[in-house]
Amino acid sequence: MSMRANKDMGVITRTVAFKGDSDGYFTYECPFCKSAFKLKIAEMKDNEKAVVEIFCPYCGLTDTITHFYTKEVIEHVTQIAKNYAIDMINKNAGKIIKPLKKENVPVAAELDTVEQEFECIYCKHHIKALYHAGASKIFCA
Ligand SMILES: [Zn+2]
Ligand SMILES: [Zn+2]
């Protein structure tokens, strides 16, 4: 059977909204040292331009922000994309095949954790990092 749906499938961009923790922070994970830290969502825009590169507060290495997404975030986005594809297939091939079942996507919510909140003395941005790393060793993201 040829998939008619393919013809209609362009590149679909969807915005997935994530909720921060109760202080408005969102979790990132360093791709180099695998340490988790949190940044304030409201401060992730600089002069209305979204931040594209961040520094790890622990090892100071920098990469594009997409490399700092946690496994949970990537899985969540993948699942939403999968369900969307299933919707498309069911819509286009529903009369030919049995509708595919979608997997439930749990709501991505941030948990409040025990990290310490820091404020950068230069740019006044906020960061949550594990306290035992020591305030003097924390890099500004
Ligand atoms: Zn790191
Ligand atoms: Zn700073």
Task: Tell me what the structure shows.
With 141 residues, this protein is an alpha+beta fold. The protein has one domain. Helix content is 19%, strand content 20%. It has helices at residues 5-8, 71-93; strands spanning 25-29, 36-40, 45-46, 49-50, 53-55, 62-64, 116-119, 126-129. The protein has a 4-stranded antiparallel β-sheet, with no helix packed on it. A two-stranded antiparallel ribbon has the order 3-4. Strands 5-6 form a two-stranded antiparallel sheet. Strand 5 (53-55) and strand 6 form a beta hairpin. It starts with a helix and ends in a 12-residue tail after the last strand. It binds zinc ion (2 copies). One zinc ion (ZN) is lined by residues 30, 32-33, 35, 56, 58-59, 61.
Outline of the structure:
The chain is α+β, with helices and mostly antiparallel strands and 141 residues long. It has helices at residues 5-8, 71-93; strands spanning 25-29, 36-40, 45-46, 49-50, 53-55, 62-64, 116-119, 126-129.
Per-chain topology:
Layout: H1 5-8, E1 25-29, E2 36-40, E3 45-46, E4 49-50, E5 53-55, E6 62-64, H2 71-93, E7 116-119, E8 126-129
Antiparallel strand pairs: 1-2, 2-8, 3-4, 5-6, 7-8
Task: Bin the helical content.
Answer: 10-25%
Q: What is the global morphology?
A: elongated
Distance between the termini: 51 Å
Number of helices: 2
The total strand number stands at: 8
The main β sheet shows up as: 4 strands, antiparallel
Q: How large, in whole angstroms, is the Cα Rg? A: 19 Å
Low-pLDDT residue spans: 1-9
Each distinct ligand:
zinc ion
How many structural domains can be distinguished in the coordinates?
Answer: 1
The residue-averaged pLDDT reads: 80
